[in-house]
Write a structure and sequence with these properties.
Two copies of one chain form a homodimer. With 397 residues, chain A is α+β, with helices and mostly antiparallel strands. In chain A, helix 2 runs parallel beside helix 3 and helix 5 runs parallel beside helix 6. In chain A, the strands form three sheets. Chain A has a six-stranded mixed sheet. The radius of gyration of chain A is 21 Å and the shape is globular. The longest helix of chain A has 21 residues. Chain A is built from eleven helices and 15 strands. Chain A folds into two domains: 251 residues, L-amino peptidase D-ALA esterase/amidase, CATH 3.60.70.12; 120 residues, ArgJ beta chain, C-terminal domain (Ubiquitin-like (UB roll), Roll), CATH 3.10.20.340. At the A-B interface, helix 2, helix 8, helix 9, strand 13 and helix 11 of A face helix 2, helix 8, helix 9, strand 13 and helix 11 of B.
Chain lengths: 397, 397
Amino acid sequence: MEVDRSGSVTSAQGFVAGAVYAGMKTYGDGKLDVALLASHQPCTVAATFTQNRLHSASVDIDRAKLAAGPVRAVVVNAGIANSSTGARGIVDGERAAELAGARLGIPASEVLICSTGVIGHFLPMDKMAAGIAAVGVHVGGGPEFARAIMTTDTRPKHAAVRFGSYTLGGCCKGSGMIHPNMATMLAFLTTDAPIERGFLQTTLSDVVERTFNLLSIDGDTSPSDTVLLFANGAADGETIVATSPNAVEFAEALETLCTYLAKEMARDGEGATKLVEFRVSGAANLIEARSLVRLLTTSYLLKSAIHGADPNWGRIVAVIGRSGVTVSEPDVSVAICGVRVFEHEEPTAFDPGEVATAMQGDTVVIDIDLGAGPASATGWGCDLSAEYVSINADYHT
Amino acid sequence: MEVDRSGSVTSAQGFVAGAVYAGMKTYGDGKLDVALLASHQPCTVAATFTQNRLHSASVDIDRAKLAAGPVRAVVVNAGIANSSTGARGIVDGERAAELAGARLGIPASEVLICSTGVIGHFLPMDKMAAGIAAVGVHVGGGPEFARAIMTTDTRPKHAAVRFGSYTLGGCCKGSGMIHPNMATMLAFLTTDAPIERGFLQTTLSDVVERTFNLLSIDGDTSPSDTVLLFANGAADGETIVATSPNAVEFAEALETLCTYLAKEMARDGEGATKLVEFRVSGAANLIEARSLVRLLTTSYLLKSAIHGADPNWGRIVAVIGRSGVTVSEPDVSVAICGVRVFEHEEPTAFDPGEVATAMQGDTVVIDIDLGAGPASATGWGCDLSAEYVSINADYHT
């Protein structure tokens, strides 16, 4: 399926969005930091949230609202995560959703909230209120919504995919503290297809496992991670359920869009200069394939070597060895940028200069065959640069 | 117990050591790279090795020799790990031990081998042979042995501790690819006390769990990790067994020395400017306390914040939350350099400037009380600097 890079959360019919600068974001793109997304019609909504036990108040608020009844809008603030802020964090978040509902003319119960930024600061409610009062939503608002949710991201990440007569659009943010577990750092997806809620949630959970959850920028799971998928049915048609003829097409559209967005996040990782794609095959089972992919994306040594375009495959073998996954040692092979560098328990006679040159591109592909079974998985990460350190040594509390 | 920083592996009676430069180490301290350590008397030996499944040929060789009979010497080469080198790696390593035995006038079966450096290169046997032929061992050779085993280390790490009428000395190396699992990247310990083998091994395994295995520089477990403890009984006396009156004293000496060496490694981590000590208390059990300590030592975000002397405690809370350990949220508290920054689910009114100033020292202590139980653990790591990245982007294959 084709990814339309100009698409966004307002590409699907019936969705509007907008953003303003309320003065909370003091770094990165300081122009926008409060955003609204809403559907004219009632929606079915699927969501996945962070598994971090000490999470944002916004995550608690959203879980409760989704369990209680239908929702159709979300207010997002960037700069302050409203996490580790106790009871006051809940009160502040609920008040913000209430103000957003009033602004949109819908009940507060139908408005979710997402917060991203520094942990442990309270929401400045005067700025939030002024921001929400000032924001206007419109059908072309998707791109500005995608910009407003950014923190250390260097560029917005949004796209859309068509399936049948429907559109699925989305955006996400995330550049540091990215090692999603069940969800990632703020992704918003919208479709004008009518989709049954159970099928919507099952498909989202499954796709998130295969896309955002196989992405890591630095191994740290954010306490704000959230993926929200709104389906408003504005494009009419039969409600899509698991047995519908177009169910597979919808799942494929969702995977196409989420894969695109996950790769965009990896490429825009804090300080990153390269996207790294890890492809593990020959694993004993899917759990082992995915766990190895996750581990590979987090090795400081490997990420540093890739930054230096150094075909130091020994660091890949060291990660495989410590991963605990089943390996058939004589059958393990490793390739970097398509060149086999290790097999039959020994280095091959590859040309390091040739591989180093290939590694200087903006995408590095690592293929690993464990020779132990039929399972495979693909995941994404980025290189580790000195810039990552300075971003995070300076990004103050 | 007092740590004597001038002590080394030759402080205990009856041990000799020496080193030469054989031309294998092309980086770091290029002056010495082949070293020998031997006891005049027969020894009891305890050892722990890496849990990395794809490990150095030297580890396989040593495991087999220790199972087969007594050993009393070790030859070490730095610059090449002889790991992922298949059958040829085993042949090369055995040949090197044979040459070292001939040089020392003892059977090859009594000589272990340790190799550290780049993974996936074969040992240059001509250089190894010339080096071993040239090395001379002597009672003052401990410090030069400690220098010879270094790779990216910036300084040697050796010390000794007295217990009763006995001496326990040791040295270690390790600066990158340090996240030991059951052992760490090359530590050599010697004592002139007579110690029963079973008690020696039990005590070593236990102390390693509480010292080297709670150290992490970058989360990567080396395929060469080895701790060897030689007890030659040269100082005479009753053989120490688990029920001996001085058994506890020996265990305390071993823990004192290993703690000192582990902290020295953390302080000399690649690119590190600070030692970070993590003290977790109030954990539900010891496994959870240790696993949280290990996780804290590996967070890119936290390590970067500490590098910037930034009291960004939200990153500590984020790690606690994703760790999966049992927490009593209202009772969790976090202190940085002795200043409480988070408790009762909310930030305290601490002075960030005061904490930032304290963090500019060469040691940063983080205290975490999980409020969930009686267990505690302490571990060590270091900050993440731009220098780490350049060391590892340049340290070529």
